[in-house]
Design goal:
Blueprint lengths: L3 E4 L2 E4 L5 H17 L1 H4 L6 H16 L10 H19 L1 E3 L6 E3 L2 H7 L5 H19 L25 H8 L1
Antiparallel strand pairs: 1-2, 3-4
Helix pairs in contact: 1-3, 1-4, 3-4
């Protein structure tokens, strides 16, 4: 029996674990981030162009296949850290009103400057859109891998968060 399969750039495991998939997605996103880092820190480009570069280059790489992720707190934190690191590079530093020294922006300030949905909300929205799409197709036409259940004895620990559980929480 195969423990993990990589198909079309997405890794699927028999344990329904996305840690390896998240690790590879974030590594690919970091590679893309470092390849455009000079553009994101350039003073010649406007902030709108830098945001468009981020939305068109790094985010699609990180969010590829996010429709079937069941996120826990650790993965949500890792995604927020990645997003905030890119936004700090885009928006740069600012002067402090009190001391007059340059400082990095705080996460709340970044969220105020970046007028877009939170990365976790984007994943929830895509997951819900995918669930509606699959449900409208009908079960007879859907590939059996989508409804694939793992036939094994469950361990005596807290059960893993399933995709269906995340969709119920999103609603």
């Amino acid at each position: 029996m195969v423990g993990e399969v990589k198909y079309l750039g997405t890794t699927s495991t028999t344990q329904n674990s996305i840690q390896e998939e998240m690790k590879s997605r974030l590594m690919s996103g970091n590679a893309c981030y470092y390849s455009v880092q000079n553009l994101l820190s350039s003073s010649l480009l406007s902030k709108n162009i830098k945001i468009k570069i981020h939305r068109s280059k790094t985010l699609p790489i990180v969010l590829y296949g996010c429709e079937n992720w069941s996120l826990n707190l650790r993965e949500k934190h890792r995604l927020r850290v990645f997003k905030n690191r890119v936004l700090k590079k885009i928006f740069g530093s600012k002067t402090d009103e009190v001391t007059g020294e340059w400082r990095k922006l705080h996460n709340e300030e970044l969220n105020d400057l970046y007028f877009s949905l939170n990365i976790i909300r984007v994943i929830k929205w895509r997951r819900m859109r995918w669930a509606v799409h699959v449900e409208s197709m009908g079960r007879a036409e859907v590939h059996t891998g989508f409804w694939w259940g793992i036939l094994r004895k469950e361990p005596l620990e807290r059960p893993r968060i399933r995709w269906e559980d995340n969709n119920k929480m999103d609603i």
